[in-house]
Structures are given as structure tokens and as C-alpha cells.
Amino acid sequence: MIEEPGVVVAIETDGVWVATQRQTTCGSCSAKAACGQGILNALSADKKPHTIKVQSDLHLRVGDQVTLAISEQSLVRSAMFVYMLPLLFMFIAALAANTLSLSEPWIILAAALGFFGGAVWVRRYSHRYFDEAAMQPQVVRAQIALNPALEI
């Protein structure tokens, strides 16, 4: 299970809204001063928390600290679906155009259209998997706040 800490920011009848802060491993790396990724992370404008709705049977309050988890298998499957499928469509379209002996600009156009078509296909059919229980994060631990205060 891949875990992420968060804070409950809102409560609804069918779940809770949890805010998480994107974390990187750059803070513990000894090469962060010379690494381009560390510099990009420091300059990143995406410092605000991300909120996600999670179903939970626990009696949580606003300000409680929770740990969310999702299985590695579902995360890898989702990543393969989102990243690899458009690339697969792109290569199939480019190979089909090449097989038809089209000129290079047409092959490039076919590849771009294949990538776009794959991205549209992912967008249209990914909603089928949103409601699967395996694809949803779960609250695995909760620290009930005595004096709820948001520290995001």
C-alpha cells in the first residue's frame, strides 16, 4: 500500500474531504543542491494542498489527521492506462501511416492524431473505473484531534 498523510477539511454524509500536501524526497537527498529536479521542485508554484473525497466509516471531525492508502497494483494499472495507452495509439497510427508509404509529414500528423485519439479514449472510458473500490483511497489510520486546528 502507498500511504499519504492528510487532514480532514470537510465532512459530508457519504464521506470526508481530506487535504494532502504533495511531498517529494528531495528534502532528504544529499545531492539536492546539484540536482535539476530539486531546483524545479523548489520553484514549483503548486504548493497548495490537494483535496480528495474519501469514504470512511470512522467518526472523523474537521482537523483530524488521517493516513490515506491505495494499493500499488491499482496505482500502476492506472498509470499504465493513462500514460501508455496514448503512446501505444501514437505508435500504431505512425506505423500504419508508414506502412501506407506516406511521406514523413503525414506520418508525423498520423502520430499526433493517434496520440490525441488515445488521450480522448482514456478520458472517455476512465470514468468507468472511478467507482471501483480498489481504485479509491482508503483511510487506514486516524489521529483524532483534541483541539482541531488545520495545519496545511
Automatic annotation (TrEMBL):
Keywords: Membrane, Transmembrane, Transmembrane helix. The keyword Endoplasmic reticulum does not apply. The chain crosses the membrane at residues 80-100, 106-122. Pfam families: RseC_MucC (PF04246). InterPro entries: RseC, SigmaE_reg_RseC_MucC. It comes from the Bacteria. This is SoxR reducing system RseC family protein.
